[in-house]
Specification:
alpha/beta; PDDEXK_AddAB-type; six-stranded parallel β-sheet; 47% helix; Rossmann fold; PDDEXK-like_dom_sf; single chain; P-loop_NTPase; Double-strand break repair protein AddB; elongated
């Protein structure tokens, strides 16, 4: 290796803004000559760093125009293929790198082939795509580190576990099959290595006469380190390292391990053949936060030299402007951070940045800032799958694959992009109509748009709407019904269907779907995917369409949208690597928990630690060292706010190892953070806490007597007693509850079917003895009744087996009862007019069954598919249905039945199962129960004919109904909780 030129390696202290110091140095070197500045070439780690340096030049020039140096990313990406001349003036004779999506598809196909050839259950296409992503990461790591697969077989000798042998065999996908499929092209990381090596060789052979500066890199890629070494050896070359610790004692420097923040720089200096003492500070200004950096360096001292803590020196003012938020949960952490960022805007020209690897926390903070209409600049962008067009195409694929199940239909139809050629407002109105018309609510209708059409056969407007929806999606629906389809055909039909569904009455679908930054990004993704599928041709075999939505989601994952404009100019969200080279006035280092920052040193899915070491790949701890270096850079910002959450998803967390080490040193030197954590947390809590909390009383409306109901059914009388507010909401406000969407078949559905089946059976055999095959006859009737529910398959699947057991018990029990019965009446209506203080009151009933017995009395039977009330509840008056029906019967209120006494009040519990059913009595004295029920009803009528009597919610909680549609309307949880707090 060529020796490093004297004085060519510099560093910028963590306490100084890296890009500002670098820009200032370049401006001073140019000495006011704009052409001299433009001659320089500056290599930075990535495009974001290039943008940051441009902004630094703008700040230092006071907004004056400049001819900037040629700024280039050290590791060019796919978009730089056309700009290779920027990196090598004469160009490079390199084959183009294979597009990432094409490589992903080919590896996915290889995984599917490998899985199918192994026997057992092969992976699904989406599972194969996830495995292919892991294989791609391994391939990238191998190429970045420049190791060879040649000795892979030797990593797993015979005494290793058998599953490692299987893994090595599986990895033949990338060792044997993948190279043969490249077709003269190369992988992206190999392409980057060749570019960097070619540039290094060119500069060594022909040293440029203009300045060449490589800055901000730690040289973790060997090819990058070689290029940095070549630049350091140039007469006009300069290497600028970020945050090299020039003050660490030599003993600690010699025993650095992979997880130390200085390890990567030590390794790089060895490759540059540059001793640490030869590295100079680039800035001539003093580091104002040197004490803080020294404190952190002491805290992160290598374990081998930690005995030096016994002689710790003082760190005066080290923690000035450093504070810590120790929040209970990520919600409070995000809220407190958002407040700190918002407060920074109160100072003119002050900037603030959130630095965290936790994307969930970053999104929470961005959402919190929206309460002040602040759109923060998030460098990581937003996942394309979560954007409006991304969610739309995903919902469309899911709805078609699931054959338009209720939730999938509503999610798609209510999306803002869905219109199918109509006015979007009209389209959504029809979607709401479909939802509220008891088509999507309750048990699921039959599959497909045809099932929806059959369920709304009486609504021509909805049928016409569904017809237009089906016409727009017909080609995609047809393909999704096939046994196997080419992925390219599915993608094309999917995108065409999305365009057709996105069209409204004014704008074509393509214009609505692909507009905006997110639409353009989705269009690029779909175009790249289509080109990749065309390039690989039949290599990607046909797949069952049911796997398409999951495969599409997997291919879409990882794609992001970065807004070009419209973000706040002084607030930022940066990743740790991006924050390495730039400082904001306030830096919030958040998510400081083990497993988040630093991330877990997860086990490699392909190799154990010894195997990785033998293979030549770096240990997982090296990544922790890089994250520690980024943390140290951010910790030296002008103002620093550290934060963590004590619990995440209910699980206690462990503070970051850097925080724990820092705490140990702080305790030893009696140091403390500048600001207490509770202030930010308390302020955030106050944001949503009212100054005064209004007491929520139990609702007790008193409508005028004229508005109160003058007729109720016997079942509603029970509600009237237990929860008068339910009667108020139903009969006075006129409110009715909607069924749940795509509900499991409930007891009410089952009860209705059983009642109807038994009614039809008894109507067929009203007087005579039952036939010997009564059970078979009842089952035949039941099949006819339940057949009407076949369009809602869940009803049949859930309840038909129960009805078979009910039929067995009912046929046997009915045969015994027929000896004492003179006539049977089923589903018979009755009423009884009563007088109250405000006028007549009509009591209504629909009895399940009334038997005229041969002794001249009546037997009332109520079918229950659930638990019937106990005799105690009936005697106490809280289950008055049968006694009130007996009162109607006593006075001849049932048509076709002469007035008579009631001798039996029975509940038939038709529950299915092994027993099938059982008979229970409502009480031993029907006469007394009837008299008491009538007296109680007269008292109830009189009470509610008084305008001062309220329709109170659940006046006796222990007697309240088990279920009510109006609990949320009565705000029961609010006033019940308030009563408990007040000791009531």
């Amino acid at each position: 290796m060529t020796g490093t030129a004297a004085g060519s390696v510099f560093t910028i202290a963590p306490g100084q803004a890296f890009v500002d110091v670098l820009a200032d140095h370049l401006l001073r070197q140019a000495d006011g000559d704009p052409l001299r500045l433009a001659e320089a070439v500056v290599l930075l780690p990535n495009r974001r760093a290039c943008r940051a340096l441009k902004e630094a030049f703008l700040r230092l020039s006071g907004g004056k125009p400049l001819l900037l140096p040629r700024l280039k990313p050290l590791e060019p990406d796919q978009d730089d293929v056309a700009d290779l001349d920027l990196l090598s003036p004469d160009g490079l004779d390199l084959p183009p790198p294979i597009p990432p999506i094409e490589r992903h598809l080919i590896l996915t196909r290889l995984v599917l082939q490998m899985g199918a050839g192994r026997g057992g259950l092969p992976p699904s296409p989406d599972q194969a795509a996830r495995l292919a992503r892991e294989l791609g990461d391994l391939l990238d790591s191998v190429q970045i580190e420049e190791v060879s697969f040649a000795h892979l077989d030797a990593l797993a000798p015979d005494d290793y576990a058998a599953h490692w042998q299987i893994t090595i065999d599986f990895l033949k996908i990338v060792t044997a099959h993948w190279p043969a499929l490249l077709g003269g092209r190369i992988d992206h990381q190999d392409w980057v290595n060749r570019i960097l090596d070619a540039q290094a060789e060119r500069w060594r052979a022909q040293p440029p006469d203009h300045p060449v500066i490589v800055a901000g890199s730690t040289g973790s890629r060997p090819a990058t380190a070689r290029l940095m070494a070549a630049i350091a050896a140039l007469p006009t070359g300069m290497v600028v390292l970020p945050g090299l610790d020039l003050h660490m004692d030599e003993a600690s420097w010699q025993c650095l391990d992979d997880s130390h923040p200085q390890y990567a720089l030590k390794h790089l200096l060895a490759r540059l053949d540059a001793p640490r003492r030869a590295v100079a500070e680039l800035s001539t200004k003093p580091d104002l936060r040197a004490a803080r950096s020294a404190l952190l360096a002491e805290a992160l001292r290598p374990a081998a030299t930690c005995e030096a803590w016994r002689h710790l020196r003082d760190f005066p003012q080290a923690l000035t402007d450093v504070s810590l938020i120790d929040a209970p949960t990520p919600r409070e952490e995000a809220g407190a951070i958002a407040l700190a960022l918002r407060q920074a805007l109160e100072v003119d020209e002050q900037t603030a940045a959130l630095v965290t690897p936790d994307r969930d926390l970053a999104r929470r903070v961005a959402a919190e800032l929206e309460r002040w209409d602040i759109a923060i600049d998030d460098s990581a962008g937003r996942p394309l799958a979560l954007t409006e067009p991304g969610a739309f195409v995903r919902l469309l694929a899911t709805a078609v694959a699931e054959e338009f199940t209720p939730h999938a239909v509503l999610a798609l139809a209510k999306h803002p992009l869905a219109a199918a050629g109509l006015d979007p407002a009209r389209f959504r109105a029809l979607a709401r109509r479909l939802e509220t018309a008891k088509i999507l609510r309750g048990p699921r209708p039959a599959a497909g748009i045809g099932g929806l059409r059959a369920a709304c056969a009486r609504d021509p407007a909805l049928i016409q709407w569904l017809d237009s929806l089906e016409a727009a999606l017909a080609p995609f629906i047809s393909l999704m019904k096939a046994e196997t389809v080419a992925l390219a055909d599915l993608l094309r039909a999917h995108m065409e269907a999305a365009e057709a569904l996105a069209a409204d009455h004014l704008i074509p679908g393509a214009a609505r779907l692909w507009r905006g930054e997110a639409g353009e990004a989705l269009g690029r993704f779909a175009g790249d995917l289509a080109e990749a599928l065309a390039a690989i041709g039949p290599m990607f075999a046909l797949l069952p369409p049911r796997f398409y939505p999951a495969l599409f989601d997997e291919l879409l994952s990882g794609k992001v949208v970065r807004p070009i404009w419209g973000r706040h100019p002084r607030l930022f969200i940066w990743g740790p690597m991006e924050a390495r080279l730039q400082h904001a006035d306030l830096m919030v280092l958040a998510g400081l928990n083990e497993g988040t920052w630093p991330a877990k040193a997860d086990a490699d899915p392909w190799m154990s630690r010894p195997m990785r070491k033998a293979f030549g790949l770096p240990s997982p701890e090296r990544r922790i060292g890089q994250m520690a270096h980024d943390f140290a850079q951010g910790f030296a910002a002008p103002r620093v706010l550290l934060s963590r959450a004590a619990r995440v998803e209910g699980t206690p967390t462990v503070p970051s190892r850097w925080l724990m080490r820092l705490d140990a040193v702080m305790t030893a030197r009696h140091l403390a953070f500048a600001q207490a954590e509770w202030e930010w947390l308390a302020w955030h809590a106050l944001l949503d806490r009212p100054d005064q909390r209004a007491r929520i009383d139990r609702p007790a409306p008193r409508p005028p007597v004229a508005a109160r109901p003058r007729r109720l059914s016997v079942t509603e009388v029970e509600t009237w007693m237990r929860d008068p507010y339910g009667i108020y909401a139903k009969h006075i406000l006129g409110l009715r509850a909607l069924d749940p969407i795509d509900a499991d078949p409930g007891a009410a559905d089952y009860g209705s079917l059983v009642h109807k089946a038994v009614e039809k059976f008894l109507d067929a055999y009203p007087h005579q003895n039952l036939p010997d095959d009564a059970e078979a006859k009842l089952l035949a009737v039941g099949e006819d009744v339940f057949a009407q529910a076949l369009e809602r398959p869940g009803v049949w699947a859930f309840w038909w087996p129960r009805f078979r057991a009910v039929a067995r018990w009912l046929a046997s029990h009915e045969q015994q009862r027929r000896r004492d019965i003179a006539a049977i009446h089923t589903e018979i209506n009755g009423e009884l007019e009563m007088e109250g203080p405000a006028g007549s009151f009509l009591l209504q009933a629909r009895a399940d069954r009334i038997d005229e017995l041969k002794d001249g009395t009546l037997a009332l039977i109520d079918y229950k598919t659930g638990q019937p009330p106990s005799p105690k509840e009936v005697a106490a008056g809280y289950a008055p249905q049968l006694p009130l029906e007996a009162a109607i019967a006593r006075f001849g209120g049932f048509a076709g039945i002469a007035p008579a006494a009631v001798s039996q009040m029975l509940y038939w519990r038709l529950m299915g199962g092994v027993q099938g059913g059982e008979e229970k009595s409502a009480g031993p004295d029907p006469q007394r129960l009837t008299d008491e029920a009538l007296d109680g009803l007269y008292g109830l009528i009189a009470a509610f004919d008084d305008p001062n009597t309220p329709y109170e919610a659940r006046p006796h909680p222990d007697r309240a109904p088990k279920y009510s549609d109006y609990l949320h309307l009565a705000r029961v949880k609010e006033w019940a909780a308030a009563g408990e707090e007040d000791g009531e």
